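hey can u check if this looks right to u? its 459 residues, i copy pasted from the old doc so theres a chance i mangled smth
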Amino acid sequence: MKNNSNTLKISCLCLVFNLFLAAVSGQNMVPNASFETLVSCPTGSGQVGLAEPWLAALTPDLYNPCAVAITYQAPLNQGCNYLPAKDGVGYVGLFVFNSREYVNVALTDTLEKGKYYYVSFFVAPDQDCDNPGEAKTFTDAIGLAVQGFEPNSPFKVVAENRGTVINDTQNWTKVSGCFAAEGNELNLRIGNFLPDDSVTIQTDMPQLPITQQFNYMYVDDVVLVPFDPFPDTVLMCDGQPVNLDATFYDADFQWVTGEDGPFILALDTGSYEVEATLDGCVLREKVAVVNLDYDSFFPPDTLICIGNELRLSPQIPGEYRWSDGSRNKQLTVKQEDEYVATITNTCGEFTFRQQVNTTDCRCRLFVPNAFSPNGDGINDELRIGFGCDFEFVPKRFEVYDRWGANVFVTDDPLNDFWDGEKNGKLANQDVYTWYFIYDVFYENAKREILEEGSFVVFH
C-alpha cells in the first residue's frame, strides 16, 4: 500500500507454431491480465482483490480512472505521477524493496510437464513525487514466479529483472522469460523474491539508512502463454504443399531448410525444424508433415469377449463426432454394434466405421454342488473340472462359510483341492460359497474372469 502522507505504512528454449489454416497464437493463461475487469471501483488502498480473480499478499494497490480517491486513479496517480496504463486503463502498484508486497492469481489451467511457456509483464517505478523529503529509491528487484496447485508448494521464479536498475518513471519496462513447466503449476505471483542484500539500489539520498529506502512499482499487462499449441502433425491433403506458420510475438526465426521468417511452404512430407529466438529464449522444434492416407484407417471387423472393453481410435487428426454424440478422439465400447465417427480436418470430412462383434469367452467350469468329507472314499474332496476354448491361466479358488470366514484358498485350483477341513477339524454341515478367478487370452487381449457359486457339505 502506498499513500501520499509523509509516513509509509508497511502493511530457453521457446517456440510456438501456428498452422496457416487451423491454429492461432497461444492463449494467455492469466485471467484479467491487465486488471481491467473490476467488481467495483477502488475507494482506497490495498484493494487489488476488486480486480478478480487477483489476490493480494499484504496491501498492494489497485489503480483505475474510476477510483474514488484521486490517489488511486489513473493515469494520474498519487496526485502527482502521470502514468498511462500499458494496456487498457488500469494497473496495480506494490512495494518491492524494504517492504514486500505481492499480487497473486490462479491461472486458467494447470501447466503441462515439460511444455515450454513464455511469460512477460511490464513495470514502472513510482516517482515518489508525493513525498519530496524522502529518498527517491530505484532497484532491479522484481520478478514473476509460479507455484503448484498444492497450497504449500514452493514458488519457482521464472522471469526476473536482475542487475539493471529500473528507473524510468515515464515508460513501461518489460520483464520476460521462458521456462519448462515441472507440471501442475497453477498459481502465479509477482513481486520481489530476492533478499534486500542481493538487490541493486540507486538512490538520491545514500546517506539515509537502508530502513528508509523504499521502492514502489506499478505492474500491468501480465502474460503467460504456452509455446506449442499446434497439433503433433500437419496434414498434407492430396499431396498439396502446406504453409507452416511459426509466428509468435516478435520472435526471430531460422528454419533448418535455411529459410528465415515465420513462414515456410512444406512441399513434401517429413520433419521440419525451426529455431525461434525471443527475449533471449531459443528453441529448436520439429513439426511432422504427413500425407492423409484415408484407406489405411479402415480396420477389419473386431471380435471381443462379452464384458470386455475396446477402445476405438481411428488416429485421424481432426474434430470427432461419434454416432453416440461423443466428441472424443477415442471411444470405449462394450456392446456389439457398428460404431461410426465423422472426422473433420483441414483436408475435408471423413467417415470411420468399425463393426464390433462379441462372443462369450468364459471357460467351462464344473464345481460339485455337494460333497461329503466323511472318509468313506466317496466324494470326499472338492475337486474342480475345467475346460476352455482359449488360452487360460487359473489364478485362485476360495471357499467361504456362511459368516464370510475363509475356509480354503489355493493358487493352483486345477491340482489342489479342499478336503473339507477347517482349522484342522471337519467342517460343519452347511452351505458354502466359492469364488474362482482365471485369465483368458483372446486375440492378444487378456480378460480376468470371476465366477462364483455354492455347494453343500454333508457328512
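The first strand starts at residue 18 and ends at 19.
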